[in-house]
Amino acid sequence: MEKLDLIGLKCPLPVIRTRKALSRMQPGQRLEVHCTDPLSVIDIPNLIRETGDRVEISEHSRERIVFVVEKGGATA
User: Fold this and answer.
1) Is the separation of the CB atoms in 15 and 39 below 8 Å?
2) What are the structural domain ranges in the chain?
3) Class of domain 2-70
């Protein structure tokens, strides 16, 4: 699983970098995204709805939010 460290980045950079990382991935691959921007709780799931991939929040604390994204079959 690839890890994407977006700690300290503010909107819209987490979404832009997540989209870019997903565009390089093959269907079935997983991406772990680490964020600190509170808006990423809204923005990352909205991005994943657009791309047709799957996302879950594996950690949500004061320090960080960790998403696990699985690349779907459609190209983003």
Assistant:
1) no
2) 2-70
3) alpha beta
Predicted confidence (pLDDT) per residue in 24-71, tens digit = 999 999 999 999 999 999 999 999 999 999 999 999 999 999 999 999
Dihedral over alpha carbons 45, 63, 7, 31 (to 10 degrees): -50
Task: Please give the pLDDT value at position 73.
Answer: 82
Partners of residue 69 on adjacent β-strands: 31, 55
Which of 4, 9, 11, 39 is flagged as catalytic? Answer: 11
Q: Who contacts 35 (Cβ-Cβ below 8 Å, separation ≥6)?
A: 6, 7, 9, 14, 44, 64, 65, 66, 67
Catalytic (active site) residue 11: yes
